[in-house]
Amino acid sequence: MTGSMLALVKERPEKGATLIKTQIPVVGDDEALVKIDYASICGTDVHIYVWNEWAQKRIRTPHIMGHEFAGHVVETGKAVRGFQEGDFVSAETHIYCGHCYQCHTGHSEVCRNLQILGVDRAGAFAEYIAVPERVLWKNSKSIPADWASIQEPMGNALDTVNAESVSGKTVFVTGAGPIGILAVGIAKAFGASLLIVSDLSDYRLDLARKMGADVTLNPRRDDAESIVRSHTDGAGVDVVLEMSGSEKAIHQGLAVLTPGGRMSMLGLPDGPVSLDLSNEVIFKDIRIYGITGRKIFSTWQTVSRLLSSKLVDPSPAITHKLPFEEWQTGMDAMVAGTCGKVVLEISGR
Ligand code: NAD
Ligand code: ZN
User: Fold this and answer.
1) Among the options 47, 67, 94, 320, which is catalytic?
2) How many domains does the chain have?
3) Protein residues within 5 Å, CB atom, of ion ligand 2
4) Are residues 95 and 229 in the same domain?
């Protein structure tokens, strides 16, 4: 397909982005052209928008950001076999190579030659995106398109929750950002017996409650340790899901994790964090998991089933559904933290 499309483009190496007309991408032989219905804003897009240090090193302008989306295939390259025009799709953001050691050993989420959609190549804040077939995911038609657009971050949340079973366990989620609150809904669906959530924002704690949190606390005014202990017969929680990237939250989580428990860490601290390994980790005989990306595609399979069965209803987490033209309102809310997931309606149907 040729012609022009509307896209949110980072035109210059500075803060900001502009909605402009640009060329529809040309599809390679192994790619499909997808018309975007909905795209949701991720923290990574915010980093690119505000032009932080990471973005300055990584992004080459002009650049179309965005990678969480749902849309319909409108054209396929000649080597594409598994998709056809009209398919309802989303995509795994981690474009793996398929031939490195990690890809060969079941860890394509940490492929050594990883390329990231919307970071290393043109993204989804546009009417059309070209996507390699190997990362395309066929959506169930029973999933609403706006829900389908948030499966990628839901996959992060799922792998953080499910590093070990949460069934019957007491769980403390530190950080009620968009991914933290999705983790709350998922942990509930998998049978966590108690969900305690912390955040510095009361607005976000309210969203966590709507997603199923039993107890919420704000470390700015609450004593996290005494609250967690009072709800766990003094034992501390079985599981900590670290979804904030805050050093304080990491120490707090470790302090209330019961000896023999498990912590999964998804939140990304700004820099190195020091731990008292003997006392915070080793003598407590705990297990810590680092989580990055999603298992390709087993995590997608589970996320898809959670949504199509409505075992997880992500509606309270989607606080903003905005026409593409109002992207700035959504980006401002993301920067301010006054939102859950922000979904842009691009050509939503
Ligand atoms: P976010 O920044 O919107 O949410 C983080 C939340 O943590 C905020 O609401 C903030 O108020 C809260 N917070 C800050 N300090 C806190 C403290 N001391 N105690 C409790 N809460 C505190 O981020 P998000 O989009 O929800 O993502 C969650 C984290 O996961 C981020 O750190 C993000 O960078 C990271 N992430 C990692 C991966 C990965 O593959 N590992 C992928 C996506 C996101
Ligand atoms: Zn690889």
Assistant:
1) 47
2) 2
3) 96-97, 100, 103, 111
4) no
Q: Let me know whether 127 and 178 are in one domain.
A: no
Of 257, 265, 262, the C-alpha closest to 237 is 257
Which CATH number characterizes residue 269's domain? 3.40.50.720
- For a mutational test of ligand 1's pocket, the pick from 109, 220, 240, 244, i.e. the residue with the most ligand atoms closer than 8 A to its C-beta, is 244
Does 50 map to a domain? yes
How high is the mean pLDDT of the chain? 97
In the chain, % of residues over pLDDT 70: 99
Q: What is residue 37's predicted lDDT score, i.e. its pLDDT?
A: 98
Instruction: Tell me which residue range forms the domain holding 88.
Output: 4-150+314-345
Q: pLDDT of 310-328, one tens digit each?
A: 999 999 999 999 999 999 9
Q: Closest Cα to residue 182, out of 297, 67, 313, 343?
A: 313
Instruction: Respond yes or no: is residue 258 known to be catalytic.
Output: no
Bond prior to 62 in cis (omega within 30° of 0): yes
Q: What is the CATH number of the domain that holds 339?
A: 3.90.180.10
The preferred substitution site among 179, 182, 225, 343 for testing ligand 1, maximizing ligand atoms within 8 Å of CB, is 179
pLDDT-derived band at 49 (thresholds 50, 70, 90) equals: very high
Name the closest ligand to CA 99.
Answer: 2
Which of 22, 44, 93, 174 is catalytic? The answer is 44
> Residue 349: what pLDDT?
45
* 218-227 pLDDT per residue, tens: 999 999 999 9
Q: What is the dihedral of CA 242, 157, 52, 97, to 10 degrees?
A: 120
* Residue 304 within any structural domain of the chain: no
Max distance between CA atoms of the chain, in angstroms, equals 64
Q: Distances from the Cα of 33 to the Cαs of 29, 121, 127, 195, in angstroms?
A: 11, 14, 10, 41
Tell me, yes or no, whether 125 and 142 share the same domain.
yes
Annotated active-site residue 44? The verdict is yes
pLDDT value of residue 348: 63
Residues with CB under 6 A from ligand 1: 43, 156, 174-180, 198-201, 204, 219, 243-246, 248-249, 266-268, 291-293, 337
